Amino acid sequence: MTAGEAAQVTAAWDRIRTWLRKHVPASYATLQPGASPEELDEVETVVGMSLPVGLQALWMCNNGSGGPMVWGDPEEEVVARAFLPQGDTFVSAAAAKPLYLFNTSMEFYDRAWIPFAAYDPDGFTGLFVNAAPGDFHWRVGHWNHKDQTVPEGPLLSVWLKEAATALEQGQWAPPAL
What's the CA gap between 88 and 116, in Å, rounded? Predict the structure, then answer.
């Protein structure tokens, strides 16, 4: 499953990237170069476990969208980088570390949940990949600091494939700039 998951994540992400380049070039322009093995090692050190293979593959394709998320960013920058479903921003490996540390300070947030997307710029809601072995290993979950956390979504590769299909079929589109 490891090599297959990585290949499926890469293929789905390539579809998303291709769609963004063609239809929303401002969002495509926010994509950062892939993370280095050292950057991924730093995240693993912070979280104290190996990153899910699919998440490694995703960050190696592109290491987030845009720079650090801060209050007061110009709206056009926030909109451009918030192209994931529900207006989430694809966070870099570097941005995932403080987001992880903040989230794990919350009583409900499991230490095995590695964030990869957040509602820009607050980080109070977002998406994670579950790194814990078991039924929900490598699955996407959603956290919301106000009322719910849902850890039992699809594999990251499936989530990305569904997002790519929704974009390509016009079922979902990032905000126009």
Answer: 10
Mean pLDDT of 62-67: 86
pLDDT tens, position by position, 85-113: 777 889 999 989 988 888 888 877 788 88
Dist CA 106 CA 87 (whole Å):
23
Angle between helices 53-61 and 37-47 (to 10 degrees): 140
Residue 13 tokens read as: 């992400």
pTM of the shown model? 0.89
The b/e string for 80-96 (b: 16+ C-beta within 10 A; e otherwise) is bbbbbeeebbbbbbbbb
For 90, phi then psi, to 5°, come to -75, 110
Long-range contacts of 97-101 (CB under 8 A, 24+ apart): 97/42, 97/43, 97/46, 99/123, 99/126, 100/43, 100/46, 100/47, 101/46
On the 0-12 / 13-18 / 19+ scale of CB atoms within 10 A, 176 is exposed
Residue 1 pLDDT level (bands cut at 50, 70, 90): very low
Q: What value does the CA radius of gyration of the chain take, rounded to a whole number of Å?
A: 15
Whether 59 and 40 have beta carbons less than 8 Å apart is answered as yes
Backbone angles phi, psi at 152, to 5 degrees: -110, 45
Residue 116 in tokens: 């990869």
